[in-house]
């Protein structure tokens, strides 16, 4: 059975495997599980247990297939479109930065695709099989941002009716995207600096440090250097985050990418809504490509 299991697991489209044995040992069960068996059943068999095991095995296979399809759809959408020199350069920067654990600071105007770049960095990193967690610092009130980022212990605040894991720990092993980091409160900035230095933090209401291994990617539409001058952003946090700086160019600086972007979105929308692929009238395409007041 073990030999057959090895052969099956080597197949490209391998089925779920349940090992049944009348001479099973703990060592054999452990070996079968390590080799990829879904379960190990000993004789005499219970019909109910066999049926339940098979149902669970099929359900697991279905979930794995759905997860694979979801990842493929996500990767298809997470695509940097364009052939302009600025996009080619940005693509090379992503290729170099993604495999590292260096923190990245993305700067650019609204609508330039900073979240897209953050997801590309995650998808091309060694952390791709872990979580990508996002927190919009501008959308969370100052009094809640610390709890949202670091988590809370039950009873630490009136709303803390149970322990809550913060975003920093939710992304443990993966990537945390700090969007609009320039809007983070100074109190939370100070705690984040300390956490990045020590690679640990204390949840709100706790004195016990929690270790984490999370890559930080931050983004801002504001000039953090200007905020530092105005004492609204900590200089030490800026240097912690700005290990690998990336500037995202707006579309008005690369109008040659407009036709390719239009074709990309037409194909994506047609596929999403089950429609036949569409094309744009040459005159309309020319008009869009020659627009002088492109916002992003």
Structure description:
By secondary structure, the protein is of the alpha/beta class. It is built from twelve helices and eleven strands. The chain has helices at 2-9, 26-34, 47-77, 85-97, 114-123, 142-150, 167-170, 186-198, 224-229, 235-241, 258-272, 282-289, and strands at 18-21, 39-42, 104-107, 132-136, 151-152, 164-165, 175-179, 200-201, 210-211, 215-220, 244-247. The strands form four sheets. It has a five-stranded parallel β-sheet. Strands 1-2 form a two-stranded parallel sheet. A hairpin with an 8-residue loop joins strand 8 (200-201) and strand 9. The relative contact order is 0.12. The model has no long low-confidence stretch (mean pLDDT 88).
What's this, in brief?
This protein has helices at 2-9, 26-34, 47-77, 85-97, 114-123, 142-150, 167-170, 186-198, 224-229, 235-241, 258-272, 282-289; strands at 18-21, 39-42, 104-107, 132-136, 151-152, 164-165, 175-179, 200-201, 210-211, 215-220, 244-247. The protein is α/β, with parallel strands linked by helices. The model has no long low-confidence stretch (mean pLDDT 88).
Distance between the termini: 61 Å
Mean pLDDT: 88
List the total number of helices.
Answer: 12
> Which structural class do you get from the secondary structure elements?
alpha/beta
Number of strands: 11
β-strand percent reads 5-15%
Largest sheet features: 5 strands, parallel
Poorly predicted spans:
none
What Rg, in angstroms, do the CA atoms define? 25 Å
- The level of helicity is 40-55%
Global geometry: globular
Sketch the topology as an H/E string, one letter per element: HEHEHHEHEHEEHEHEEEHHEHH
Strands of the largest sheet, in order across it? 4-7-10-3-11
């Amino acid at each position: 059975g073990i030999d057959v299991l090895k052969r099956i697991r080597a197949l490209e489209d391998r089925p779920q495997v349940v090992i049944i044995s009348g001479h099973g040992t703990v060592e054999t069960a452990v070996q079968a599980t390590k080799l990829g068996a879904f379960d190990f059943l000993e004789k005499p068999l219970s019909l109910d247990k066999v049926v339940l095991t098979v149902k669970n095995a099929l359900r697991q296979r279905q979930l794995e297939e759905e997860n694979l399809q979801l990842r493929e759809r996500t990767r298809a959408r997470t695509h940097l479109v364009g052939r302009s020199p600025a996009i080619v350069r940005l693509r090379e920067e992503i290729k170099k930065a993604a495999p590292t654990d260096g923190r990245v600071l993305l700067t650019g105007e609204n609508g330039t695709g900073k979240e897209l770049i953050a997801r590309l960095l995650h998808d091309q990193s060694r952390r791709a099989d872990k979580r990508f967690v996002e927190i919009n610092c501008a959308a969370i009130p100052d009094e809640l941002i610390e709890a949202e980022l670091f988590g809370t212990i039950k009873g630490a605040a009136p709303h803390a009716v149970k322990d809550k894991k913060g975003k920093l720990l939710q992304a443990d092993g993966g990537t945390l995207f700090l969007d609009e980091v320039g809007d983070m409160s100074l109190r939370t900035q100070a705690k984040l600096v300390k956490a990045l230095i020590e690679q640990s933090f204390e949840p709100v209401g706790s004195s016990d440090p929690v270790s984490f291994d999370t890559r930080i990617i931050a983004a801002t539409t504001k000039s953090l250097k200007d905020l530092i001058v105005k004492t609204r952003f900590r200089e030490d946090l800026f240097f912690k985050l700005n290990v690998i700086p990336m500037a995202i160019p707006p579309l008005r600086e690369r109008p040659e990418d407009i036709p390719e972007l239009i074709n990309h979105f037409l194909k994506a929308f047609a596929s999403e809504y089950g429609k036949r692929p569409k094309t744009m009238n040459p005159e309309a395409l020319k008009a869009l490509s020659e627009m002088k007041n492109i916002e992003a």
